[in-house]
């Protein structure tokens, strides 16, 4: 979300067959063995938890720890609800009507709203995936600068150093050789979270700086954007539900996973802010002093995100190539997209501010507005008044929170640049 873990994004990966049309699902029938409840729990966890967690302590600093905890709880609740709305909508369309298998969010958008629905979903997927990759490059640049050139205030050098290597990695037409790196990404993410929590606790026991429980209203929207980014994983819910062995218990497993992630995020953000107070930086690992373990974790995260970049860009390539190149591999188009993402990363000054922008603008629409809207359109003839009002409230809230959060995030970004 990421990270966003690469395997978790496979819902957007096509099979490369030519002659695809607007109503061709991005995924063919899944022949893999169905997932047990523990495996489904792990897959949902992997699909959601990623590099965005590193920006949570900074968001806690900006909005206050109590405001941020309430925001995290709200976002977790809404995300879980909207994920299940997609599942209910797919089940309603598939099973009674015998429609072609709806494998992805884009397929569902086409089934509900035709070509316009797929176009909107595709556009938001492109924006969200490129947004994640921009965040990765910002993190790599900032962390590399902190490790190797601590006296320099600019991360641009390291972002441009990544460019030629990313051009090479993104030239690979198939992800087969890169897929095993997803396991490495999972291990590094979890290891980094564990080490950071340990470092935060040690720092807190040695020194307890003053902290604020509440910030002003604009910082609530800022915190909301970071939280939405951190919980983003809406594109994975349909493939995960398809792979679940006990589909009637998928909602329960999803809910338990979201509760676990909420407490993990709450502890991570709160401990990070309580440990460093107003000195909390936009990437929490930048607060740690020199040391072999700290340097190893930072380097591991950079390597992780470096190799995750082409995996996260793959859905973008498939959508763009399907629309403009007739499903044909296009090297120059991929290179142009990588160059544009790198340029955007150079122009954005702050990691957490950018998380807030992507979370507020794109992820609110993709994660809240569209699931509730699709559910409302499909069930409108049979839903009761309470459910209708609930869907309308989610759509309206998603729009209001998205616009307000985007505005606040842009103010923060340009305030830093000024």
From TrEMBL:
It comes from the Eukaryota. This is Uncharacterized protein.
